Amino acid sequence: MVQAEMVEATEFQALSNKYNVSGVPQTTINDGAANIVGAVPESNMLAELKRIMK
Fold this sequence. Notes:
By secondary structure, this protein is an alpha+beta fold.
């Protein structure tokens, strides 16, 4: 039950600005409830998802 989209930050400046993209890859969860910058291990991603689902 996860939906994901990927956009090219340099081609979509408005979205990059809206979500304050500071590096790539950047994962933005639930319209900014969490932002993860860089390639992170799966365990880190799951921990962040669990944190915002509480």
